[in-house]
Amino acid sequence: MLTNLLPTLTATPLFAVGLTLAAYLVGSALFMRLSKPSWLPAILIAALLLAAILALLGVPYATYQQGATWLTVLLGPATVALGMPLYQQLPRIRELWRPLAACLPIAASLAACYALGIAWLLGAGPDILASIAAKSVTAPIAIGITEQLGGSVALLMGSLLVTGVLTIPFVSLAARVLRINDERIIGFALGLNGHAIGTVRAFDISPTAGAFASLGMSLTGIFTALLLPLAWRLVGLAG
Amino acid sequence: MPALNGLLWLISYWLIGEVVIHFSGLPISSGVVGMLLLCATLAMIGRVPSSLAAAAQPLIALLAMLIMPGVVGVFFILDELAGQWLAIVASLLLGTLLSVFTTLWLLKRLMGRSHAD
């Protein structure tokens, strides 16, 4: 009976969709219950829960992933939707366009280069480098970049999770060391380095920090999407 | 159904992005093209239509959930990554720490200067 049940359930995408929704909701609830720890974001709790459930039920990842396509297809329109906050922040961008425009290319390039350099020094292969290059870019854009570079999307997503989670304590540490209180700077740094995960955290700090985080996230995404694949081809890493 | 109306906007812009990439061969994702086109369109209209906001806001709020199916994949390729672990973890950890410091330091310097202007 039980052995027949699982194939029946996984035959419909609703099983994967339901599991994902449940893990996300339970993860968010636990996160609130733990009074929003900055070192353990809701998405990390949810991802660990989901992985544990899949492992316990013995559902192969490929089967789950196939069903979850019903959710992930929405990443396309969700990326387009980021055009809305971008438009809403245009006045703020104009106000600060000079420092932001000077900082963004350097900071966004370094976000990729530091990690690539360290991984290369430690002997990581080209497939690993291609998978972690977009680690600071918001997921829907990063997936497109990684596919173009020929990296592994699964490893990219793991790198996104690790990078986003680490960015939060690192930004508060760096802000303390550098004596920075400006919420605009802190927000921008959270979005630029920590993509969606950092942006969610910035909205916890204040709406201004959140607005600058979405700005940093969008601009890093656009800049990296435009330049990283070209740079990759120039360096000759692409096959 | 304003949200449905807005969703059609978003999907249409994503599809336009696909068309643009198909003909231009640009190495970026159709989502990025759609996002830029949407931003440009809104700047021309001068406001955000409520139907668009009704679809865009919940979708942006759900970004974290939409990436979860992909994120979970990393737990299932742990075996394949054996031996590369140190390089990956060290590069993400140190790389993020360095780039966070650089970003904040740069912005502090640059914004300080623009205030002085």
SS-based structural class of chain B? mainly alpha
Of all chain pairs, the largest interface belongs to: A-B, 106 and 73 residues
Mean pLDDT of chain B: 87
Unreliable sequence segments of chain B: none
Question: Major beta sheet of chain B, specifics?
Answer: none
Shape of chain B: extended
What is the number of independent domains of chain B? 2
Main location (chain B): membrane
Transmembrane segments (chain B): 58-78, 84-107
Protein name (chain B): Murein hydrolase transporter LrgA
Membrane topology (chain B): Multi-pass membrane protein
Short characterization:
Chain A is an all-alpha fold and 239 residues long.
Structure description:
The complex is a heterodimer of chains A (239) and B (117). Chain A is built from 13 helices and no strands. Chain A is globular. The longest helix of chain A has 29 residues, at 207-235. The model of chain A has no long low-confidence stretch (mean pLDDT 87). Chain A folds into two domains: 2-73, no CATH class; 80-235, no CATH class. Chain A is mainly α and 239 residues long. Chain B is mainly alpha-helical. Chain B is extended, with a radius of gyration of 20 Å. Chain B contains five helices and no strands. The mean pLDDT of chain B is 87. Chain B folds into two domains: 1-72, no CATH class; 77-117. The relative contact order of chain B is 0.09. Helices cover 79% and strands 0% of the residues of chain B. Chain B starts with a helix and ends with a helix. At the A-B interface, helix 2, helix 3, helix 4, helix 5 and helix 6 of A face helix 1, helix 2, helix 3, helix 4 and helix 5 of B.
